[in-house]
## 1
Amino acid sequence: MNPPVIAALLLAAGRGTRFGADRPKQYLPLLGRPVLRHAAEALLAEGLVTLLQPVCPSGEEAEIAAMLAGLPSLPPVVGGSERQHSVRLGLEALAPHKPDVVLVHDSARPLVPAGTIAALLAALETAPGAIPAQPVADTLKRGAAGSIVETVPRAGLFRAQTPQAFRYATLCAAQAAVVGEVTDDASVLEAQGLAVALVPGSERNVKITFPEDLERVEAMMLSGLVPRIGTGFDVHRTEVGRKMILCGVEVPCEFGLEGHSDADVGIHALCDAIYGALAEGDIGRWFPPSQMKWKDADSAQFLVHAAERIAARGGVLVNCDVTLMCEMPRIGPHREAMEARLAALLGVPVSRVSVKATTTERLGFTGRGEGIACQAAATVMVPFA
């Protein structure tokens, strides 16, 4: 007997106007990666979800696909103007895959606590739908015109969360019969008189609605990480006739640097610092100079890989510091461009990147102009292991 096909709809078609940002909240960075990416990874983390179907606004399919690159995700489909329209279109996109169960999840919920999906699937054995929910703890007041009208009894009241789980055929049928706007998918089944089970939710399952929510989730995520520091050092000889590439920026100079790749001494040292912080070797392990495919390669791709290794470990780059040691060229006029380029490659705010330079007072090989050296340091936060 084949195992059940469990699909998840990742709803990202909303604009999140209450957040007040110039971009939808699900696209905003959270520890260096989009909120939506965290939500997708949370759905897939325990290996129970078979298919992931993103639903997004028209014209943003490519952007969503890029955010989910490397994950086992289906191509994004365009949603509708209201939530139930987006869910309906997502369900239609899943039809060829014949899922047995579908989870519906808000892309603005980047944390799905371990065990939540398993509890929902267990509840579906006896009910057509199930949702995670938290009992209301605060006293509830109904108000009007700035005054309290009445106190609302909180007994038996719950705060609904996502992902919400349903038997696929049941949700499809209920969606086809729904009239009017609904704010969650359990309401669709409720309107048809169908039972929806409650499983324990979690205070960690925060829906990002306002800026302070993003700050709260970031604090939660950082609380489970520990700092690790790495250092890197690299040297390249000068060579006439080559471009001078430093920290991803071409710098006007009468000579360049000798090397198998583009010899970007700044990026090479920074990569080693990041790999060192992760205890994952050095740049030569990942991009050996013995392989011709790295001949004259743009070192930018090496730094992108180092950033991907941080993400793969569930970590975040806190900061990095690069010190170039040379007499020529002058680094000062290009420092801001270098910091911006490194930040873009790493996918972090430029405030986390520092580039500076020093001379060796004309001493040694750097003082004689025979080469350029670089040392770098990087601090990353990764899950405790």
## 2
Amino acid sequence: MVGALTQALARAGHPVQVVTPLYRGIRQRFPAIRSTGWRFEVRIGPELVPGRFHRLDPEPNLTLWFVDQPGFFDRPGLYNERLHDYPDNAARFSFFSQAATLLDRHLPNPPGIVHAHDWQSALVPMRIQYERVATGWTSAPKTLLTVHNLAYQGSFPICDWDSTGLPVQWLHLESALHHGQVNFLKGGIALADALSTVSPTYAREICTPEFGCGLDGLLRRREYELTGILNGVDYEEWNTVGNPALVASYDADHLGGKRANKAALQEELGLPVDGSIPLFADVTRLADQKGVDLLHDAVLDLLGSGERFQLALLGSGDPRLEAAIDRLARTFPNAVAARIGFDAALAHRIEAGADFFVMPSRFEPCGLNQLYSLRYGTIPIVRATGGLADSVIDPRENPDRPTGIKFHEPTAPALVNAMRKGIGLFQHPEVLDAFRRRGMRTDVSWTRQATEYLDLYDEVYHGV
């Protein structure tokens, strides 16, 4: 999201600077990265930890700054390995946040807005607010914090507060103190000048106890400073014309290539090649949040009742769900194909080849696959939550311009009913193709979404 948004802003003529850790592999992927010679130290507990800034200018108006500290960031994973968080994550991202604030303060052309994302950079708004007050940084930028998924908060033992470089007086219930722990995300939510999240519906949901993950009270107090903006799609990457991952190009006016991609996908996955059978799909993290267990049970129900369809699934995650999906595929090899893991090219082929894309999420801040599906003429079947509710139009909402199918209860029977609607829709090719064309002509690009962020930046900068 950050990469696509910043590119869209830069291409619209707005100067953008991105700050990110120099994770393992970045330098090899982008050999044009150069050292600036800028070395610095920040305090992490009792120690001064050194770091360096590197820089890349990939296109006009866009500068990437990389925070180099090998001990913290030259690791196999970003935040964890084998599903276990790094034990020094508080120190790692305290270092990053202090480095980013240092950069903000000393750039020749300092920013007017600093846009932080999630708990990993949520200390930046806190740090900037502290330096406004404690050091008289009167020209400090305004801050916006975007919450991509409230379930991940960066919660650490009280002793990790020392790593932030902030005085103990700044740790209290109106900042980062939460149930006896240091909560990076809570601190950012409390002290950023403005807040956003990745869909209008999710912005409303996280202000409720059901979706607020323990922070709903704080979010309700800041509800009028919280904006929901849907994510977009990078049309250069997610494109049905000239895409090397696909066997045939197609567009809204020429859908023949989509049928060719379906046949090729069925063959690749070992499913019977049959254009007359509806092909459902999911590309997902195998987790309870994503409702994979609901999909598993719904498929069993539908196959048990004699429904004729196929399912293609790509994903990895919870070993228990991996085993269940693998067992389902082995039990019904002519109806279910599963690939455990991730394959970016296969994800494109699944989006292009499927008739329906199923997203039974229990909660979904924004979701991207339903946007990819619209772009690829694959009809999304989604639970009406978060960004799924905002980006898909059900026939009951607007019979003149539906783009997908929604269901409301996070249960297997509700999903079964929605999938049966898809099977029924498949029996009417003209109506089916009208859904496809409508989705493909829906503008879900970052070019459009970037204008909403520009409006929000203007409001934050001027204190509206």
## 3
Amino acid sequence: MTMFPLAPQAALAAGVLGALSLGLMRRPPPLALRALALASIVGAMLLAVGLPADAYSSPILLTDAKSIGWQYLIYLGALPLAYWLDGEDDVLTALFLGAVLGMSLLASAANLAMMFIALEFMSLPAYLLVARSRRGDRALEAAIKYFFAGGVAGALFMLGLALYYADTHGLAASAALSPLGQAGATLMAAAALFKLGAFPLNWWLPDVYEASAPEVSGFLSTAMKSAAVLFLMRLCELAPEAAFIAWLPAIGALTALTGAVMALRQERLQRLFAYSSISNAGLLIIGVGAWAVSGRSTEGVSALLFFLGAYAFMSNGTFAFIKYSGCETRAQLKGRGAAMPAAAAAFTILLFALGGIPPTGGFMAKLLLLWRAVDASLLWPAAAGALSALISLAYYLGMIRDLWFEKADQSVSFKPGAGAVLVIACAAGIVLLGAAPWLMSSLAGGLVR
């Protein structure tokens, strides 16, 4: 079946225009905005499923098996936020769909110029999304920090692009690079690492995740992270002999350890999971480095796809529990196990998965990624990644203790709602990946071959 290669992106663009059109009404129907957001994401996902592996190729855009696989991950990470939208703010809906559209375009970018356009397209709405996700000065301050961090990343990318172009006289892949081109490739890689929150470029991330609404933090930690990983991989493909590739495993190891150690000191849940996100970004960078130094094998891509798919369930589920329970600190988790047993049990499963405890999908995700690092002879980065997972057990198991074995300082109350459904669904997804990892491994393998 032949179809328009940018059909998923067209569905998202239609959603953006639809949200803005509904906003022209005096009182846009909340249900219509919620339905539009969900329909746009689900529609884009279904249209991506229908695309053939070699749908389109041009100097600007490339729709191949890898880009389709990454679009699945981006839409999977975005679905929970579409679920949480209350439909009261048409601008928020348009910003959300605009950011997803930018990520989707990044997945299909074939040269550096298109990558920059897509990068800005996904970043600019995200800054405003953070600012509008909560009322108050903290969200605005976090959005400003996010904007300046994104501005630095964009400036690094443009400067690197200029140096790369001066060396190669082109914006496509180049095997041989002079020192000038190497410097350009390194600066562009720094922009990708900024987006991932790699050490020491992670100063902005904890403040942004803490100040945003939990569901927005979940979106940033999954869909945005998937786009940033693909961004880094595309740079490795465009400059396969770039010197920065050899440094990626070490950067990933430092990032994983830094995030895990810093999370030990956190009492506020969103800030704790922000550092957890940094630690998991480190594991992903190790995985990208292993994939790049071992000849960019399909097995390496499959491991990254599996990890990101599992992380979409784990991170969105944990932030959904924070949103549903209303807990802001670890102390407020005490007594929640008895007060909301179903949601707390699902949250416990997600914490086990984040800690890499078998038989959850989180264990399989970390095992596959670290195995690819060992297979690429990256022994000490793999050991550092495993150590970061071991350190993380201190706070993941600590939260489980708080949930079930600590008494609340005061009576626990909460408002029942549909949010528990999302937490339980994410927990079920991660259990399924642990029980039948071949499901996603087969899908990932089929996509990248």
## 4
Amino acid sequence: MAINAQELQGQWNQLKGKVKEKWGQLTDDDLNISGGNIDQVVGKIQQKTGEGREAIEKFFTSLTSGGGSAISGAAEKARDFAANTGERLRDSYGQAGDYARERYEMAEDLVRHRPAQSVAAAFGIGLAVGLVVGVAIRSR
């Protein structure tokens, strides 16, 4: 796999950081391109890291072809999507909790202001449920 030397040289200052991320033991002096000779840099990387020439060239090719940025772009989009989804879920959970609290407070208020009607309603609902359960048991 051959690397495009011109493209690599044109972007070298930006790409040096990514090369140093991958191979942390490299210094700026190791990554200086003198006289446009990419082979010297590849040789230095091989010497310092023990990495094979083909792997180094493949890494450079992925950097210059945008493969690395496409992957990081996809990862960033996935991270943003997950963060947004989490925020929406928290908001929805909060809204559901607020709604349940409001309804509970309304029920408390109703019982407090109309205790006789509340007891009668509860008794009626209990009676109806009991009848339905009783009929269901007998029909078996």
